[in-house]
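Example record

One chain of 201 residues, shown exactly as stored in the release files.
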Amino acid sequence: MPHPKTERTLIIIKPDGVQRSLIGEIIRRFERVGLKLCAIKMVTPDEKFVEAHYTLDPDWRRITGEKRIQKARERGEEPPSQDPYEITAVILENLKKYLTAGPVIAMAWQGAHAVELIRKLVGSTEPRSSDVGTIRGDYVLDSYNMADDDGRAIRNLIHASGSVKEAEAELKHWFLPEEIHKYSLVQEKILYDVNFDGRKE
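Predicted structure tokens for this chain:
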């Protein structure tokens, strides 16, 4: 089994995050917790690339639609449809418009439990449900209701891989192997050195 410190995940700062000049703040959050940036680039994806990204997992449409229905029911609201595939057909079209609206920042981050840790730092998919202290909770005020009423994707600043398996597939979709760098940071001695020795002069 590889050491947890080698785990990698994909982060995309979406067009609203770029337009609101939050790139540095988002990167700062990940660096402060001890994660290592292994790849970064600015791109403007086309609709075909965005659709391929969201459908890398053949179950994405069903799972995403079911979550949307469940979230509405928890709030005592009527979901846009009872059919998860009908919901995600609309979501996917809106996501394609959203993510092709301007440049995005694609990044690979590495560190112990990177996928889980970043999901916790980013917050819930719906900013309205995100806790204060998370990126979405601190910097966005959007909700599923507003997005549905406006006929658009929810604006939540960031995409973060949902599992290690998902991260592996998404990183291959966004980066060539040679674009992801392997290097050491001084702070890794503090974070991962078993003996934690040699710190005194």
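Notes: The chain is about 45% helix and 10% strand.
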